[in-house]
């Protein structure tokens, strides 16, 4: 204190002397000059006086004081603000960072160094201060003064508002109630009635020029758009061990890095690999002997499970190096590929089919049940081609019955003398001018006048049979067939059992199938000349079914697995259809001749588009659970049907378009059943009505079902 008082007195003494000297100098200059001082001199004098006073009238702490020796003391405020009142050093308003590399923080008024305050306190002292001082969290250190300052509540609230992105002022409400004096009352006329300026609703030419300039710069590449945050974050991940960071990678290297697939992890050990597994995981003596005899590839486990009382008794694993080597080989040689999985709903991939109610008419209800075959199987059905009023049926009772479809009456019954054989097939002649029925019984084929329909047609059929009987004498019998006339019926004898008879659409040719006849299993007969011929010199496989093309000279032959198409005019193979069926049971051709369906005994139904491919266009395999015995097309409506041994018949919509660029539309419509689920009846044959959307099905109990 004494030293400080002493320095203060010295400073006051020197400052008073400097002030007196300056005042004396001013008086002498004023007395010596005769004229009054000019304005510039007064300003210069005032500046000098002020500067001298500024330099002298300060104490050691740069505080103002009153000079009592001066007759006119003046109080001068030298501080810019009140914030500097707490300063205890004489550094001045300079950055403290200037003294970071020095051991002092400034100088005193007499030129002595001001030592720095104690640096950072120890962690123990700071921890004790933190625990003892309740205001520790709001205490900061002022670098200018070197003291700890406790922030008041106003400053703490101000800082909290700034951190939470609020208004700095505490309690400030930015949404004060506002009274719109200008428009709070509805007026009749506007206060301002000026017209809008033209530039308010027209395009600015200046902005258009700026936009054109920017577009031109973007096209030339001079201006590039700002990168999004996602693109900027792509470069955040980099290879730590890559020395060539500035070298651009090729596309293949980038793709290889992106498509990297990590190796699959090893299978986790199970209970059998435990050193103390449960008893059920240990092998018996028989299982152990079997494990030793089996090859390494056939073993379920690569080791024999063993049991130990404690872990220290477990011996060293002998195959450790071998397993590690196998794992390394798998990682090195096992190929891995990334597969892009599409999260697509399965229903979206299926085509949108029309609803069945929009595809009417089609048979849905059982209308009539024909009974007359004495409880035996009814295996064959055929419609009279003229108007479909009559149909014929045959079964195991060796007779053919003719029915009137509307009344359900059995119009006629034709019995045959071949009692040792069953009727395997029958078909009406498609020629509407003849009422001729072909019946296959055993090894004989009979051409019978059905006697149904118009009387003129019946009489004409009798005349045709009499004319043909006169030609039988001139026909030379060969080894394959023989033609004879018996009881107003023409009999064509074969060497083997006939399984099918089918007519050509013209009505002059018909074909028979004898599966056991070898190369002569398929015979084509001409009715007008009463001749038979074998069209194949060699036949591959067992022939199941045959059918003629409705408009072209094509002949379809179905084996057990495929369907061959022959051109009868050129006598060559045209196409071979590859079916998914193991044993084809029946085939049917569309009236236009470009599509064909085939069924099999393994419950498969395939649709072939001859213009599209030799493989099935579509397969219907989930609707029948047992063998499919027969398939058929409707001659007028876009319908086809299939009947199965499980007692169901499937009616489907099959629309064939004239546009070759559009694929056929196939829609399953209705599953028809025999009626009772306990009866376990089987459908053996089915056929459509020639004109009406009716389906006729033959059952295993000898009955005939009519669905309309």
From TrEMBL:
Stretch list, region Disordered: 27-55, 223-243
Gene Ontology CC, one term: PeBoW complex
The entry's keywords: Nucleus, Repeat, Ribosome biogenesis, rRNA processing, Transport, WD repeat
SMART domains: BOP1NT, WD40
PROSITE patterns: WD_REPEATS_2
Transport among keywords: yes
Entry's Gene Ontology molecular function annotations: ribonucleoprotein complex binding
UniProt keyword Isomerase present: no
Compartments where found: Nucleus, Nucleolus; Nucleus, Nucleoplasm
Primary localization class, coarse: nucleus
Comp. bias (Low complexity): 29-39
Residue ranges annotated for the BOP1 N-terminal domain, each copy included: 99-363
UniProt cross-references to InterPro entries, sorted A to Z: BOP1/Erb1, BOP1_N_dom, Nup159/Nup146_N, WD40/YVTN_repeat-like_dom_sf, WD40_repeat_dom_sf, WD40_rpt
Gene3D superfamilies noted in UniProt: YVTN repeat-like/Quinoprotein amine dehydrogenase
Function (record text): Required for maturation of ribosomal RNAs and formation of the large ribosomal subunit.
Record family assignment: Belongs to the WD repeat BOP1/ERB1 family.
GO biological process: maturation of 5.8S rRNA from tricistronic rRNA transcript (SSU-rRNA, 5.8S rRNA, LSU-rRNA); maturation of LSU-rRNA from tricistronic rRNA transcript (SSU-rRNA, 5.8S rRNA, LSU-rRNA)
Mapped WD repeat ranges: 387-413
Protein name in UniProt: Ribosome biogenesis protein BOP1 homolog
Basic and acidic residues bias locations: 226-243
HAMAP family linked: BOP1 (MF_03027)
UniProt superkingdom: Eukaryota
């Amino acid at each position: 204190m004494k030293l400080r008082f002493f320095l203060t007195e010295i400073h006051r003494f020197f400052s008073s002397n400097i002030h007196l000297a300056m005042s004396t100098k001013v008086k002498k200059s004023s007395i010596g000059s005769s004229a009054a001082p000019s304005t510039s001199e007064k300003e210069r004098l005032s500046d000098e006086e002020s500067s001298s006073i500024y330099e002298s009238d300060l104490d050691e702490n740069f505080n103002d004081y009153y000079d009592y020796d001066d007759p006119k003391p003046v109080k001068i405020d030298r501080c810019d603000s009140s914030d500097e009142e707490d300063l205890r050093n004489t550094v001045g308003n300079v950055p403290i960072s200037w003294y970071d590399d020095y051991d002092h923080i400034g100088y005193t008024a007499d030129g002595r160094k001001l030592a720095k305050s104690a640096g950072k306190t120890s962690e123990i002292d700071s921890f004790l201060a933190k625990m003892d001082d309740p205001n520790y969290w709001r205490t900061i250190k002022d670098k200018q003064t070197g003291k700890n300052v406790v922030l008041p509540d106003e400053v703490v609230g101000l800082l909290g508002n700034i951190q939470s992105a609020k208004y700095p002022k505490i309690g400030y409400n930015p949404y004060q109630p506002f009274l719109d004096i200008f428009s709070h009352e509805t007026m009749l006329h506007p206060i301002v009635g000026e017209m809008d300026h033209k530039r308010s609703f027209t395009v600015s030419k200046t902005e258009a020029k700026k936009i054109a300039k920017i577009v031109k710069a973007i096209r030339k590449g001079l201006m590039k758009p700002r990168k999004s945050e996602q693109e900027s974050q792509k470069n955040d991940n980099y290879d730590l061990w890559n020395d060539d960071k500035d070298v651009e990678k090729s596309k293949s290297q980038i793709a290889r890095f992106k498509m990297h697939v990590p190796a699959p992890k090893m299978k986790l050990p199970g209970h059998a690999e435990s050193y103390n597994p449960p008893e059920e995981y240990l092998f018996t003596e028989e299982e152990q002997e079997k494990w030793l005899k089996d090859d390494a590839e056939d073993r379920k486990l690569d080791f024999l499970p063993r049991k130990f009382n404690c872990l220290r008794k477990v011996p060293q694993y002998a195959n450790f190096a071998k397993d590690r080597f196998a794992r390394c080989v798998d990682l090195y040689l096992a190929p891995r590929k990334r597969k892009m999985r599409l999260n697509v709903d399965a229903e979206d991939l299926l085509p949108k089919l029309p609803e069945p109610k929009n595809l009417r008419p089609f048979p849905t209800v059982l209308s009539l049940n024909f009974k007359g075959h004495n409880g035996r199987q009814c295996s064959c059905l055929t419609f009279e081609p003229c108007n479909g009023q009559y149909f014929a049926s045959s079964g195991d009772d060796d007779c053919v019955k003719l029915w009137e479809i509307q009344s359900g009456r059995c119009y006629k019954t034709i019995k045959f003398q071949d009692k040792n054989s069953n009727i395997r097939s029958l078909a009406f002649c498609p020629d509407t001018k003849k009422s001729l029925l072909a019946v296959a019984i055993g090894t004989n084929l009979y051409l019978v006048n059905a006697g149904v329909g118009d009387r003129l047609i019946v009489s004409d059929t009798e005349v045709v049979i009499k004319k043909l009987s006169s030609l039988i004498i001139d026909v030379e019998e060969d080894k394959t067939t023989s033609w004879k006339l018996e009881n107003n019926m023409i009999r064509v004898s074969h060497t083997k059992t006939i399984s099918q008879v089918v007519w050509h659409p013209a009505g002059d040719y018909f074909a028979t199938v004898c599966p056991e006849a070898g190369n002569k299993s398929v015979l084509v007969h001409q009715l007008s000349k009463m001749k038979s011929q074998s069209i194949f010199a060699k036949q591959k496989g067992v022939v199941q079914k045959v059918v003629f093309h409705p408009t072209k000279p094509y002949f379809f032959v179905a084996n057990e697995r495929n369907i061959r198409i022959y051109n009868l005019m050129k006598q060559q193979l045209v196409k071979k259809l590859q079916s998914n069926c193991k044993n084809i049971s029946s085939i049917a051709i569309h009236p236009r001749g470009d599509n064909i369906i085939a069924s099999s005994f393994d419950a498969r139904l395939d649709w072939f588009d001859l213009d599209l491919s030799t493989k099935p266009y579509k397969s219907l395999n989930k609707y029948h659970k047992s063998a499919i015995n027969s398939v058929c097309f409707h001659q007028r409506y876009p319908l086809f049907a299939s009947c199965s041994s499980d007692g169901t018949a499937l009616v489907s919509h099959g629309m064939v378009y004239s546009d070759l660029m559009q694929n056929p539309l196939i829609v399953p419509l209705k599953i028809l059943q025999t009626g009772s689920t306990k009866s376990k009846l089987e459908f053996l044959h089915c056929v459509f009505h020639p004109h009406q959307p009716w389906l006729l099905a033959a059952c295993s109990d000898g009955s005939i079902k009519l669905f309309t």
